[in-house]
Amino acid sequence: MSALPGPPSAPDPGVELLERALAYTRSTLATVTPAHLHLPTPCERWDLGDLLGHMEDSLDAFAEGAHGTIDLHSAAPAPVGERIRSLQVKACDLLGAWAGATTPTVAVGGRPMPVRTIARLAAVEIAVHGWDVGRTTGADLPVAADLADALMPTALALALEQHGEFGPPVPVPADAGPERRMLALLGRRAASYRS
């Protein structure tokens, strides 16, 4: 008699956060039109076209990370419709890659990092840049409070390590909600915030 398989393992919380960040960002990407491409974004040095290129590069790199290594490269320029379709497809590919990731560490610039850390970093990067896109297009779709709260520890770690990926932290009132606090840790200001 053979043994019955054990209960399925619980999904990695980092992958669940990644899935939620991707769903949020896909909704903001749906608001982009060609007229938005040259608008400034909350990322001081990028217009929306530059930000979309960076996001495509990031999705590629994070998908590679699911297989154990991240090689940095740049996406070729593309028309907005093609770029958005590519980002949507790569978002799905990324989630599939991470859902099936089996390697315990990822080599980033030759330095090993735990897979769970990379999945959480990806979730923060994707959610924050999704917010940047929505802010730029005027969609202003909020990051769900529970998602922002779950991303907060990783956002704080990024703020403490600052290597230029995001802007320096900005002050917020003590009673600020999770979305505002998370965004402020990564240098985001807005005329209006949701608490």
From TrEMBL:
Q: Which Pfam families match?
A: MDMPI_N
Gene3D superfamilies in alphabetical order: dinb family like domain
Q: Where is the Mycothiol-dependent maleylpyruvate isomerase metal-binding domain?
A: 19-133
Q: Which GO terms describe its molecular function?
A: metal ion binding
Superkingdom, natural source: Bacteria
Q: What is this protein called?
A: TIGR03086 family protein
Which species does the entry assign this protein to?
A: Nocardioides silvaticus
